[in-house]
Amino acid sequence: MWLIGDVCEMNPQVVEPCLPFLFSLRDQMPFPGMRRSLAKWLWLTNVPADVEDQAIPQLLQWLDGDEYSIACKSYTAKALFDLVIAGRLAIDTLIPVLKRQCLSENRAYASRMQKILDRLR
Question: What pTM does this model have?
Answer without folding.
Answer: 0.93
